[in-house]
Protein backbone atom coordinates (compact mmCIF):
# COMPACT_ATOMS: atom_id res chain seq x y z
CA UNK A 1 0.00 0.00 0.00
CA UNK A 2 2.82 2.42 0.83
CA UNK A 3 4.54 1.62 -2.46
CA UNK A 4 1.31 2.25 -4.38
CA UNK A 5 0.73 5.55 -2.55
CA UNK A 6 4.21 6.96 -3.14
CA UNK A 7 4.40 5.69 -6.70
CA UNK A 8 1.03 7.21 -7.62
CA UNK A 9 1.85 10.59 -6.07
CA UNK A 10 5.26 10.79 -7.74
CA UNK A 11 4.28 9.44 -11.16
CA UNK A 12 0.92 11.22 -11.60
CA UNK A 13 2.33 14.72 -12.31
CA UNK A 14 4.54 13.17 -15.00
CA UNK A 15 1.61 11.39 -16.68
CA UNK A 16 -0.95 14.18 -16.75
CA UNK A 17 -1.74 14.82 -20.44
CA UNK A 18 -1.66 18.60 -20.14
CA UNK A 19 1.73 18.48 -18.40
CA UNK A 20 3.13 16.17 -21.07
CA UNK A 21 1.82 18.36 -23.90
CA UNK A 22 3.17 21.51 -22.31
CA UNK A 23 6.62 19.99 -21.82
CA UNK A 24 6.62 18.71 -25.42
CA UNK A 25 5.71 22.16 -26.74
CA UNK A 26 8.63 23.68 -24.85
CA UNK A 27 10.95 20.95 -26.11
CA UNK A 28 10.00 21.42 -29.76
CA UNK A 29 10.19 25.21 -29.54
CA UNK A 30 13.75 24.73 -28.30
CA UNK A 31 14.55 22.31 -31.14
CA UNK A 32 13.05 24.60 -33.78
CA UNK A 33 14.25 28.00 -32.60
CA UNK A 34 17.45 27.48 -30.69
CA UNK A 35 18.69 24.35 -32.46
CA UNK A 36 17.31 25.38 -35.87
CA UNK A 37 15.70 21.98 -36.38
CA UNK A 38 12.93 22.85 -38.83
CA UNK A 39 12.03 19.21 -39.39
CA UNK A 40 10.26 19.28 -36.02
CA UNK A 41 7.80 22.01 -37.08
CA UNK A 42 5.10 19.55 -38.18
CA UNK A 43 5.32 17.63 -34.92
CA UNK A 44 5.17 20.87 -32.95
CA UNK A 45 2.11 21.94 -34.94
CA UNK A 46 0.30 18.67 -34.11
CA UNK A 47 0.98 19.02 -30.38
CA UNK A 48 0.01 22.69 -30.54
CA UNK A 49 -3.37 21.88 -32.12
CA UNK A 50 -4.06 19.19 -29.49
CA UNK A 51 -3.08 21.45 -26.61
CA UNK A 52 -5.08 24.38 -28.01
CA UNK A 53 -8.17 22.19 -28.44
CA UNK A 54 -8.00 20.93 -24.87
CA UNK A 55 -7.45 24.48 -23.62
CA UNK A 56 -10.24 26.21 -25.55
CA UNK A 57 -12.85 23.45 -25.73
CA UNK A 58 -14.54 21.84 -22.70
CA UNK A 59 -13.41 18.37 -23.76
CA UNK A 60 -12.57 17.24 -20.24
CA UNK A 61 -15.86 18.51 -18.88
CA UNK A 62 -17.77 16.73 -21.63
CA UNK A 63 -15.93 13.46 -21.04
CA UNK A 64 -16.60 13.70 -17.31
CA UNK A 65 -20.30 14.34 -17.89
CA UNK A 66 -20.77 11.56 -20.45
CA UNK A 67 -18.46 8.81 -19.14
CA UNK A 68 -18.28 9.39 -15.38
CA UNK A 69 -21.41 11.25 -14.23
CA UNK A 70 -24.25 10.38 -16.59
CA UNK A 71 -25.36 7.10 -15.01
CA UNK A 72 -25.66 8.69 -11.54
CA UNK A 73 -27.78 11.66 -12.60
CA UNK A 74 -31.09 10.02 -11.62
CA UNK A 75 -30.00 8.20 -8.46
CA UNK A 76 -32.64 8.02 -5.76
CA UNK A 77 -32.23 7.77 -2.00
CA UNK A 78 -32.96 4.27 -0.66
CA UNK A 79 -35.82 3.72 1.79
CA UNK A 80 -33.57 2.68 4.66
CA UNK A 81 -29.91 3.17 5.48
CA UNK A 82 -27.76 2.79 8.58
CA UNK A 83 -24.67 4.79 7.63
CA UNK A 84 -23.76 7.62 5.29
CA UNK A 85 -20.14 7.21 4.22
CA UNK A 86 -18.37 10.45 3.22
CA UNK A 87 -14.76 10.29 1.95
CA UNK A 88 -12.86 13.57 2.25
CA UNK A 89 -11.99 15.57 -0.84
CA UNK A 90 -14.86 17.99 -1.44
CA UNK A 91 -16.72 20.17 1.06
CA UNK A 92 -19.98 19.63 -0.86
CA UNK A 93 -19.97 15.98 0.20
CA UNK A 94 -20.31 16.87 3.87
CA UNK A 95 -23.08 19.37 3.17
CA UNK A 96 -25.02 16.79 1.18
CA UNK A 97 -24.50 14.12 3.87
CA UNK A 98 -25.96 16.44 6.54
CA UNK A 99 -29.02 17.12 4.36
CA UNK A 100 -29.52 13.40 3.73
CA UNK A 101 -29.25 12.56 7.43
CA UNK A 102 -31.90 15.19 8.22
CA UNK A 103 -34.08 13.63 5.53
CA UNK A 104 -34.18 10.35 7.44
CA UNK A 105 -35.20 9.82 11.04
CA UNK A 106 -32.74 12.04 13.01
CA UNK A 107 -31.67 9.35 15.47
CA UNK A 108 -31.42 6.46 13.03
CA UNK A 109 -28.67 7.29 10.53
CA UNK A 110 -25.02 7.89 11.39
CA UNK A 111 -22.42 9.72 9.30
CA UNK A 112 -19.03 8.08 8.79
CA UNK A 113 -16.44 10.61 7.68
CA UNK A 114 -13.08 9.44 6.37
CA UNK A 115 -10.50 12.17 6.80
CA UNK A 116 -7.04 12.24 5.33
CA UNK A 117 -3.96 14.04 4.09
CA UNK A 118 -2.86 13.15 0.56
CA UNK A 119 0.42 15.07 0.61
CA UNK A 120 3.74 13.23 0.34
CA UNK A 121 5.07 15.39 3.17
CA UNK A 122 2.20 15.53 5.71
CA UNK A 123 4.43 17.04 8.41
CA UNK A 124 4.86 20.27 6.45
CA UNK A 125 1.35 20.39 5.00
CA UNK A 126 -2.09 20.99 6.40
CA UNK A 127 -5.26 19.44 5.02
CA UNK A 128 -7.49 22.49 5.48
CA UNK A 129 -10.39 20.92 3.60
CA UNK A 130 -10.55 17.91 5.90
CA UNK A 131 -10.29 20.16 8.93
CA UNK A 132 -13.12 22.33 7.62
CA UNK A 133 -15.27 19.27 6.89
CA UNK A 134 -14.89 18.04 10.45
CA UNK A 135 -15.54 21.49 11.89
CA UNK A 136 -18.79 21.74 9.92
CA UNK A 137 -19.86 18.28 11.06
CA UNK A 138 -19.08 18.93 14.72
CA UNK A 139 -20.81 22.31 14.69
CA UNK A 140 -23.93 21.13 12.87
CA UNK A 141 -27.19 20.22 14.55
CA UNK A 142 -26.26 16.53 14.38
CA UNK A 143 -25.88 14.66 17.65
CA UNK A 144 -22.18 13.99 18.17
CA UNK A 145 -22.82 10.29 18.82
CA UNK A 146 -24.09 10.06 15.25
CA UNK A 147 -20.77 11.26 13.78
CA UNK A 148 -17.96 8.75 13.30
CA UNK A 149 -14.53 10.00 12.23
CA UNK A 150 -12.30 7.29 10.80
CA UNK A 151 -8.48 7.41 11.14
CA UNK A 152 -6.55 9.41 8.57
CA UNK A 153 -6.34 7.99 5.07
CA UNK A 154 -4.09 9.23 2.27
CA UNK A 155 -6.21 8.30 -0.75
CA UNK A 156 -9.52 6.72 -1.80
CA UNK A 157 -8.17 3.19 -1.39
CA UNK A 158 -7.22 3.85 2.22
CA UNK A 159 -10.61 5.53 2.81
CA UNK A 160 -12.29 2.23 2.06
CA UNK A 161 -9.69 0.17 3.92
CA UNK A 162 -10.55 2.16 7.06
CA UNK A 163 -14.26 1.69 6.37
CA UNK A 164 -13.77 -2.07 5.97
CA UNK A 165 -12.06 -2.25 9.37
CA UNK A 166 -14.92 -0.33 10.96
CA UNK A 167 -17.55 -2.54 9.32
CA UNK A 168 -15.86 -5.70 10.56
CA UNK A 169 -17.52 -4.93 13.89
CA UNK A 170 -20.69 -3.49 12.35
CA UNK A 171 -21.80 -6.13 9.87
CA UNK A 172 -24.91 -6.28 7.68
CA UNK A 173 -25.41 -2.52 7.65
CA UNK A 174 -26.93 -0.57 4.79
CA UNK A 175 -24.46 2.08 3.60
CA UNK A 176 -24.98 5.10 1.39
CA UNK A 177 -21.86 6.49 -0.28
CA UNK A 178 -21.96 10.26 -0.74
CA UNK A 179 -19.25 11.59 -3.02
CA UNK A 180 -18.79 13.71 -6.15
CA UNK A 181 -20.50 12.22 -9.21
CA UNK A 182 -17.25 12.07 -11.21
CA UNK A 183 -15.62 10.20 -8.30
CA UNK A 184 -18.48 7.71 -7.85
CA UNK A 185 -17.44 5.06 -10.38
CA UNK A 186 -13.91 4.70 -8.97
CA UNK A 187 -15.23 4.66 -5.39
CA UNK A 188 -17.73 1.89 -6.11
CA UNK A 189 -15.06 -0.19 -7.85
CA UNK A 190 -12.80 0.11 -4.80
CA UNK A 191 -15.73 -0.67 -2.48
CA UNK A 192 -16.47 -3.83 -4.47
CA UNK A 193 -12.81 -4.87 -4.30
CA UNK A 194 -13.06 -4.57 -0.51
CA UNK A 195 -16.29 -6.62 -0.44
CA UNK A 196 -18.30 -3.61 0.77
CA UNK A 197 -21.86 -3.37 -0.51
CA UNK A 198 -23.17 0.16 -0.79
CA UNK A 199 -25.33 2.43 -2.88
CA UNK A 200 -24.02 5.70 -4.26
CA UNK A 201 -25.62 9.13 -4.16
CA UNK A 202 -23.84 12.08 -5.84
CA UNK A 203 -23.09 15.19 -3.81
CA UNK A 204 -22.43 17.36 -6.88
CA UNK A 205 -21.93 17.29 -10.63
CA UNK A 206 -19.31 18.89 -12.85
CA UNK A 207 -21.82 18.92 -15.72
CA UNK A 208 -25.10 20.32 -14.42
CA UNK A 209 -27.14 20.02 -17.61
CA UNK A 210 -27.23 17.96 -20.79
CA UNK A 211 -28.42 20.70 -23.15
CA UNK A 212 -26.01 22.81 -25.19
CA UNK A 213 -26.10 26.51 -25.97
CA UNK A 214 -23.40 28.18 -28.05
CA UNK A 215 -23.73 31.52 -26.24
CA UNK A 216 -23.46 29.76 -22.87
CA UNK A 217 -20.44 27.87 -24.16
CA UNK A 218 -18.77 31.13 -25.21
CA UNK A 219 -19.61 32.75 -21.88
CA UNK A 220 -18.03 29.86 -20.00
CA UNK A 221 -14.71 29.67 -21.89
CA UNK A 222 -12.01 29.27 -19.27
CA UNK A 223 -8.66 27.83 -20.32
CA UNK A 224 -7.59 27.04 -16.76
CA UNK A 225 -10.80 25.13 -15.99
CA UNK A 226 -10.69 23.25 -19.31
CA UNK A 227 -7.20 21.99 -18.52
CA UNK A 228 -8.21 21.21 -14.92
CA UNK A 229 -11.24 19.12 -15.92
CA UNK A 230 -9.28 17.24 -18.56
CA UNK A 231 -6.74 16.27 -15.91
CA UNK A 232 -9.55 15.28 -13.51
CA UNK A 233 -11.01 12.99 -16.17
CA UNK A 234 -7.63 11.41 -16.89
CA UNK A 235 -6.88 10.80 -13.20
CA UNK A 236 -10.28 9.20 -12.61
CA UNK A 237 -9.93 6.88 -15.61
CA UNK A 238 -6.43 5.90 -14.49
CA UNK A 239 -7.71 5.37 -10.95
CA UNK A 240 -10.52 3.10 -12.14
CA UNK A 241 -8.09 1.07 -14.28
CA UNK A 242 -5.54 0.68 -11.48
CA UNK A 243 -8.23 -0.24 -8.95
CA UNK A 244 -9.51 -3.01 -11.23
CA UNK A 245 -6.03 -4.32 -12.03
CA UNK A 246 -4.08 -3.90 -8.79
CA UNK A 247 -6.63 -4.45 -5.98
Characterization of this structure:
With 247 residues, the chain is of the alpha/beta class. Helices cover 56% and strands 11% of the residues. The protein contains 10 helices and 5 strands, in the order ααααβαβαβαβαβαα. The chain has helices spanning 2-15, 17-34, 41-56, 59-69, 91-103, 128-138, 156-167, 181-193, 214-219, 223-246; strands spanning 83-87, 110-116, 147-153, 175-179, 199-202. It has a 5-stranded parallel beta sheet with strand order 3-2-1-4-5, with helices on both faces. The longest helix is centred in the C-terminal third of the chain and has 24 residues, at 223-246. The chain is elongated and about 70 Å long. The mean pLDDT is 85.
How far do the termini sit from each other? 10 Å
Q: Could you name the ranges where pLDDT drops below 50 across 5 or more consecutive residues? A: none
Q: Biggest sheet: strands, sense, closure?
A: 5 strands, parallel
Helical segment count: 10
Q: Tell me how many strands there are.
A: 5
Strand content: 5-15%
What letter string, H or E per element, gives the SSE order?
A: HHHHEHEHEHEHEHH
Radius of gyration, in angstroms, nearest whole number: 21 Å
Order the strands across the largest sheet as they lie in space. Answer: 3-2-1-4-5
- How much helix, percentage-wise, in residues? 55-70%
Helical/strand content category? alpha/beta
pLDDT averaged over residues: 85
Shape type: elongated
Summed up:
By secondary structure, the chain is an alpha/beta fold.
List keywords for this structure.
247 residues; alpha/beta; 10 helices; 5 strands
Amino acid sequence: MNLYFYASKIITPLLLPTNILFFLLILFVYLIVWKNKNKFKKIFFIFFIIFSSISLLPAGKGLIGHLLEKEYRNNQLPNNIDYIFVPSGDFKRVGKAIKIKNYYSPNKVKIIYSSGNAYLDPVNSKDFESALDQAVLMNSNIDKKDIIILPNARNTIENFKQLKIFLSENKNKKILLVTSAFHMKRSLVIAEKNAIKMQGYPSSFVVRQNSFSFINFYQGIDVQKNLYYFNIFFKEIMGIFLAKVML
